[in-house]
Write a structure and sequence with these properties.
The complex is a heterotrimer of chains A (188), B (168) and C (412). In chain A, α3 links the parallel β6 and β7. Chain A has one domain: 2-Layer Sandwich (Beta Polymerase, domain 2), CATH 3.30.460.80. Helices cover 22% and strands 21% of the residues of chain A. In chain A, the strands form two sheets. Chain A has a five-stranded mixed sheet with strand order 1-2-5-4-3, with helices on one face. The N terminus of chain A is likely disordered. Chain A contains three helices and seven strands, in the order αββαββββαβ. Chain B has a single domain, classed as Rossmann fold (3-Layer(aba) Sandwich), CATH 3.40.50.12280. The N and C termini of chain B lie close together (7 Å). The model of chain B has no long low-confidence stretch (mean pLDDT 86). The chains are: A alpha/beta (188), B alpha/beta (168), C mainly alpha (412).
Chain lengths: 188, 168, 412
């Protein structure tokens, strides 16, 4: 992707607007969290629209808290938590998209995990991360440590398999004859 | 019923009268799940009024309605719910499959979508379109009314065959 | 329990340990407000523990209209996927198409000509108006004000006529293309648009007169379903729901794209974050969108609507039918699709509901590697359980209608 070209129809030219800010922010983060950051990818060297920080899963909560509350960063709006299935080891990337409502700029964090590894849950930082992480678990099978209530959200409770994995077919059916029952333990 | 199997003159006339009453006073149960639900709302609203044809009393309870309009996608998670609602309705009941997703799964040939509600419940009228234009819906409703008048719907045929078997 | 035991006349030594019907020993009841319910917008499920009429605790379930669009995004070419984006927020289908086209163009680095941008802005604002009309209309129907909805819905039908002239379909439009639009607006369409704008202004004033100062409406909506600024930030609320709580963010103004810098509009903000405020914010936004629409219709000039980038330009029909190269190009475009260069981008826009985003990861093939749709309804639906805790059941109905949950976007 050629982000060097100014794309006037889409948010203006983020590289000229936020390029220096991103550079100072990423150098600051790298100094503070030296060993927890694996890699930092900045546009235009890497084909992306915002900087991507590859964070180790042990340090993700610290980095999220820092980004949320530190003046100068203030990435207080969690836009999205999702995951991608790369077909090489480590298999999954958990992606956090953040938006700063004060400085109006965005950033992305990624955590690389293998199949079966646990990722610390971001519900400690934002309560709204709850359902997004449930969806990541439902679709990919990535479990989150410290999540209050990790169960399936989009698919039926009795579904077997995780649909958005690359080895799951597009048309794998599982038929149910009874509707999903009410679970009174959730209301205890 | 007489010895040669034909029903008498008065009973046929009575059947016709009852079917006339049924077709002009259909009580729909809108089972709207997705985009077709909006078009169903459009055909029930003031611009394309379905209540001109008698289908005004929209009851959301299966015990109180006789026309099940399945508008929208039916999932594998929603399918048992649809079956429960269909079973709770009392005979004679009619089913209109509204839109491409309900009739055949539509453009979604994926792991979570039921490829047509007729795999589960008997359907009387299919309305094609994604979503169908309200003119199409009204055409389907009129066709359904014709079927009810002649006794051709699945439910009426089942009732007729039961009556035939019990010699009633 | 002891008194009951003696009344039952049970033999000595019979131990009644636990009454299976008595879950909490008092008058609490679990109510399943199931997937097929008129007050649930689409197929949503809420299970509530009620103490009389007060909701003590509840949990919500969805997924009853899950259509696997994200998986389909990995199996269909980028052009084919436009059809699926209509069915996301189906009350404002034009807007979803435009955001998707913008996101793929961002990955490819394509610029579209001016007239296309103005047309896209017109589509977005029209979609926003008709979405808000449905949202406040259905909210009113849930609370009993039926004719309010009918006024708004008639304007929506008039808008459908306009959209049908533009692209042939009423609801699921598939109008935007990657690099342009499906077809240009026909002659005289802008004049019809201006007539519609004038009529909608009077209808909105009528609707306003019906409900805003109505004592019953105020009693049912003021102070109901309050979600203040703190909670909105915790649950990532955006759009009119967040603006009703006092968060002053509008992506059209703060992250400008298309030509929003060249039109003047205000962003309505309220303070309390209850149902009444959300209704007022949406009503004011309809008026602002009508202003934007009339400015766009004035500023739009004649010109091409397709980019000249050879990768995405769908050849014109006379070229396809009369030249060999045109036919081959057409065939290859629609059968295999065009390659999108490797990279990733998260493109977002201020949809009628909130922040609609597409996070697309491409590995250089004609199909996406990951097509993630960030629908605002998911994040808004998450807040309904904390919002109605301690409120009455009837207030839950009002609150659910006001946060504008569309099942297509929720379940994708």
């Amino acid at each position: 992707m050629d982000v060097r070209q100014p794309i006037s129809a889409n948010g203006g030219d983020w590289l000229t607007k936020f390029g220096d800010q991103w550079k100072t922010q990423t150098t600051q983060i790298k100094e503070k969290f030296r060993d927890k950051i694996e890699e930092i990818c900045l546009p235009p060297d890497y084909p992306t629209d915002v900087p991507i920080l590859f964070v180790k899963k042990e340090g993700i909560l610290e980095v999220l808290n820092f980004l949320k509350s530190e003046p100068g960063f203030e990435y207080g709006f969690l836009a999205d938590i999702t995951a991608t299935d790369e077909e090489e080891e480590p298999r999954f990337h958990v992606v956090y998209n953040l938006f700063s409502q004060v400085h109006k700029c965005r950033i992305r964090l990624k955590v690389r995990v293998r199949d079966g590894e646990l990722v610390p849950s971001a519900t400690a930082v934002w309560k709204g991360a709850d359902w997004a992480e449930r969806e990541v678990y439902d679709m990919f099978g990535i479990k989150f440590e410290g999540h209050p209530d990790l169960r399936r959200i989009l698919m039926d409770n009795r579904w077997v398999g995780h649909p958005l994995r690359k080895d799951y077919p597009l048309r794998g059916y599982q038929v149910f004859t009874e509707p999903m029952p009410v679970d009174p333990d959730l209301l205890a | 019923m007489s010895k040669d199997g034909s029903v008498g003159f008065l009973t046929t006339r009575l059947e016709d009268f009852i079917n006339w009453g049924r077709k002009n006073a259909l009580w729909p149960l809108p089972f709207g799940t997705s985009c077709c639900g909006i078009e169903m709302m459009a055909s029930l609203c003031s611009d394309y009024d379905m209540s001109r044809f008698g289908a005004e009393v929209v009851r959301f309870s299966p015990r109180q309605s006789d026309l099940l309009i399945v508008a929208g996608i039916i999932n594998l998670k929603m399918a048992p719910v649809l079956k429960t609602v269909y079973d709770q309705m009392s005979d004679p009941k009619f089913v209109m499959s509204f839109g491409a997703c309900a009739s055949s799964g539509g453009i979604f040939n994926v792991y979570s979508v039921l490829q047509g509600i007729d795999t589960m419940i008997p359907v009387d009228v299919y309305v094609p379109g994604c979503p169908p234009a309200p003119e199409g819906v009204i055409h389907a409703l009129l066709r359904l009314q014709e079927m009810v008048a002649k006794g051709e719907t699945h439910s009426q045929r089942k009732l007729a065959s039961l009556k035939h078997k019990t010699g009633n | 329990m002891e008194a009951q035991k003696s009344q039952l006349g049970l033999p000595e030594g019979y131990v009644v340990e636990h009454d299976p019907d008595d879950l909490w020993g008092d008058s609490r009841v679990i109510v399943n407000i199931g997937p097929t319910h008129p007050a649930m917008h689409g197929a949503l499920r809420m299970v509530a523990k009620l103490n009389g009429e007060t909701i003590e605790k509840s949990y919500c379930e969805f997924g009853y209209t899950h259509r696997a669009k994200e998986k389909l995004g990995e199996n269909r070419t980028f052009h084919n996927f436009i059809v699926y984006t209509d069915r996301l927020n189906y009350c404002s289908a034009l807007l979803n198409n435009v955001v998707y086209a913008m996101s793929v163009e961002r990955l490819m680095g394509i610029e579209v000509p001016d007239r296309c941008v103005w047309l896209r802005m017109i589509c977005c604002e029209m979609a926003r108006i008709i979405d808000h009309l449905i949202c406040i209309g259905i909210n009113a129907v849930d609370l009993g004000a039926f004719s309010f909805f009918l006024y708004g819905f008639h304007q929506r039908e008039e808008a459908y006529t306009l959209i049908e002239k533009l692209c042939g379909a009423r609801l699921t439009t598939s109008y935007a293309r990657i690099g342009g639009m499906m077809a240009d607006a026909p002659e005289g369409w802008e004049k019809d648009l201006k007539i519609w704008i004038a009529k909608t202004r009077t209808v909105i004033d009528e609707m306003d007169n019906l409900l805003t100062n109505n004592k019953i409406w105020k009693k049912r909506t003021v102070g109901v379903g309050v979600f203040d600024k703190e909670k909105c930030l915790q649950y990532s609320y955006s759009g009119p729901n967040a603006r009703a709580a006092g968060i002053d963010i509008d992506l059209r103004r703060d992250q400008p794209c298309l030509f929003y810098k060249d039109v003047e509009f205000d962003v309505p903000i309220a303070q309390n974050g209850d149902v009444f405020d959300r209704y007022m914010v949406r009503l004011a936004e309809i008026r602002q969108s009508l202003n934007i629409l009339s400015q766009c219709a004035d500023k739009m000039k004649k010109g091409p609507i397709w980019t000249e980038d050879k990768r995405v330009r769908i050849p014109d029909k006379d070229v396809v039918y009369n030249t060999m190269e045109g036919m081959i190009h057409h065939f290859k475009f629609f059968m295999t699709g065009f390659d999108v260069p490797a990279g990733e981008a998260y493109t977002q826009f201020e949809a009628a509901n909130g922040e609609l985003g597409f996070y697309i990861v491409s590995k250089g093939s004609p199909r996406a590697h990951r097509m993630r749709i960030r629908g605002p309804s998911v994040w808004h639906f998450q807040g309904i359980s904390p919002m109605v805790q301690g409120e009455k059941l009837a207030d839950m109905v009002a609150a659910l209608g006001s946060i504008n949950i569309i099942a297509g976007e929720l379940d994708r």
